[in-house]
């Protein structure tokens, strides 16, 4: 039986307007990652520290190593963060030390992320003997003690500087990210769109770069942020214990001299509090950025606390992630 053309036209779905594909809605989806308060706050604070790392040594009011007659002076108009036992300006030391901290963190994060992507995605997609071999390599690097290795290399090559330490941290901290990316790739390589690309004759490199890696962007970003946090904490820890492979000043060096000269016993709280606060603020910013990435990836976390239903008494209840709501019991 023939169907009238009018009925077919009425049953056919209406085409989407062009603005719904390339208009404001598409732009909002593109920047949805920045809509969360955690990610935006973390990016703003991180950008502030990056700017300080670039211009910090230039805007420092004093030479961080220059001595003066103002010994252990409290914060004042001349010395905003006070002075050390040698009359050195603490504010200038914090500004100059920001560059070393950010350089080591970002460099180690880039090195570790590149290695994690290469090993993790390749081993997960190829499988078989090559995949198992790369997986075994990542297992070996999982058990390498990074901090003792950095201390040994820093002692043997004292002129290596921050770049050497950053590279060593990156070379010893990529295995965790590789394991996560391998597990995600094992899940993605059997998806329908990957099988369709393979069946159409797409080369392996194109499938990895255009079909798999775009779906791992958030995981890669989270791995990068986690590596930066680890690298920053490692550098500060090693500088605090006196490893000599670092540049003249960073936040860990400030804490090292404050501890060795018993700043707390002398009541010179300004000697170690600014560097400690800088470490805490930077760590908080990186953690907020990591939380924002997790919420962007997980729809459940993104909608946590925003869904509302009515219970048996008619009151509005906000659903939270991790809890199963009970709307009411049946009366007998």
From TrEMBL:
Q: Where is this region: Disordered?
A: 1-23
What does the UniProt keyword field contain? Cell membrane, Membrane, Transmembrane, Transmembrane helix, Transport
What are the GO cellular component annotations?
A: plasma membrane
Q: How does it sit in the membrane?
A: Multi-pass membrane protein
Q: What is its main location?
A: membrane
Q: Which PROSITE patterns match?
A: ABC_TM1 (PS50928)
Name under which the protein is recorded: Peptide/nickel transport system permease protein
Tell me what organism the protein belongs to.
Amycolatopsis jiangsuensis
């Amino acid at each position: 039986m023939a169907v009238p053309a009018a009925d077919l036209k009425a049953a056919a779905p209406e085409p989407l307007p062009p603005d719904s594909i390339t208009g404001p809605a598409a732009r909002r989806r593109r920047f949805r990652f920045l809509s969360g308060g955690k990610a935006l706050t973390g990016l703003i604070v991180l950008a502030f520290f990056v700017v300080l790392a670039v211009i910090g040594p230039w805007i420092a009011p004093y030479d961080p190593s220059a001595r003066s007659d103002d010994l252990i002076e409290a914060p004042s108009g001349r010395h905003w963060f006070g002075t050390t036992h040698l009359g050195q300006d603490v504010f200038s030391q914090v500004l100059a030390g920001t560059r070393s901290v950010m350089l080591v963190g970002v460099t180690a994060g880039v090195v570790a992320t590149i290695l994690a992507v290469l090993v993790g995605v390749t081993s997960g997609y190829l499988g078989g003997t090559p995949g198992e071999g790369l997986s075994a390599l990542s297992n070996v690097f999982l058990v390498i003690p990074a901090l003792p290795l950095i201390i040994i290399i820093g002692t043997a090559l004292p002129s290596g500087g921050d770049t050497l330490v950053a590279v060593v941290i990156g070379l010893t901290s990529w295995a965790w990210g590789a394991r996560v990316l391998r597990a995600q790739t094992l899940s993605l390589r059997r998806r329908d769109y990957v099988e369709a690309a393979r069946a159409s004759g797409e080369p392996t490199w194109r499938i990895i770069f255009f079909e798999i890696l775009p779906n791992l962007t958030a995981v890669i970003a989270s791995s990068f942020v986690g590596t930066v946090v680890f690298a920053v904490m490692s550098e500060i820890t090693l500088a605090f214990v006196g490893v000599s492979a670092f540049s003249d000043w960073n936040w860990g060096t400030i804490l090292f001299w404050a501890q060795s000269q018993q700043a707390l016993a002398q009541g010179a709280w300004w000697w170690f509090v600014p560097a400690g606060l800088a470490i805490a603020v930077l760590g908080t910013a990186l953690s907020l950025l990591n939380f924002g990435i997790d919420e962007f990836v997980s729809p459940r976390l993104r909608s946590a606390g925003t869904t509302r239903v009515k219970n048996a008494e008619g009151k509005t209840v906000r659903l939270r992630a991790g809890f199963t709501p009970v709307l009411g019991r049946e009366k007998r």
